[in-house]
């Protein structure tokens, strides 16, 4: 069974600070996705990481993927209040099932609160 | 361009009833996936359909079923509703090529009383 673990699950930080969210997964996969969810809303796609060593950046967020360590990180630089949300990482199950299913397995999410 | 659409937005049912949720994918996307998100948890994979065929199924009971139509829209059906079925049901569409990035609809909030 594919497991995806995020930590921390809750994070309260001040504006201007830097922090990293970690995502570990239990099987080999070259596809990892990061999503953002605001309260009561759906999921917004942030990053798609498709190979070992992939790094993507958008504004104050940067995501990376190390497939050998089965680890992805989401780094927040100089946080601002607008980044407060729940962040999910997800792994494509297709690589586990050999093509039988293309669903995503999600972590439990990191609930991020950024205080002024 | 229209994104993924879902209907209804909210739904209240009682235990034992049946419910049908609907989803229309992004134009050009032929793959549709369904997820259940219980409050405070990450989404759980229920089904994936491509070209009207089931490609994958998560660990959900047979009370859950789905289908995909020739226009690639999809329905999720849940029979004999239980209190534990109360959740946000999310539909996602994707292209099967390239990154296979899944784009999510706004969801249907189902409350079972």
How far apart lie the N and C ends of chain B?
A: 37 Å
The secondary structure category of chain B is mainly beta
The percent range for strand residues of chain B is: over 45%
Number of helical regions of chain B = 0
**What is the chain-wise order of helices and strands of chain A?**
EEEEEEEEEHEE
Overall 3D form of chain A: globular
Distance between the termini of chain A: 41 Å
Q: What integer is the average pLDDT of chain A?
A: 90
Structural class of chain A: mainly beta
Quaternary: heterodimer
Low-confidence stretches of chain B: none
DSSP strand tally of chain B = 11
Q: Fraction of residues of chain A in helices?
A: under 10%
Helix and strand string of chain B, N-terminal first? EEEEEEEEEEE
Radius of gyration of chain A: 14 Å
Mean pLDDT of chain B: 94
- Main sheet properties of chain B: 7 strands, mixed
Give structural notes:
The complex is a heterodimer of chains A (116) and B (113). Chain A is mainly β and 116 residues long. Helices cover 3% and strands 53% of the residues of chain A. Chain A is globular. The model of chain B has no long low-confidence stretch (mean pLDDT 94). In chain B, a hairpin with a 5-residue loop joins strand 7 and strand 8 (74-78). Chain B has 113 residues and is mainly β. In chain B, 0% of the residues lie in helices and 50% in strands. In chain B, the strands form two sheets. In chain B, strands 2, 4, 5, 6, 9, 10 and 11 form a seven-stranded mixed β-sheet that branches. In chain B, strands 1-3-8-7 form a four-stranded antiparallel β-sheet, with no helix packed on it. Chain A binds chain B through residues 4, 31, 33, 35, 41-45, 48, 50, 88, 90, 92-94, 97, 100-109, and chain B through 31, 33, 35, 41-45, 47-48, 50, 55-58, 90, 94, 96, 99-107.
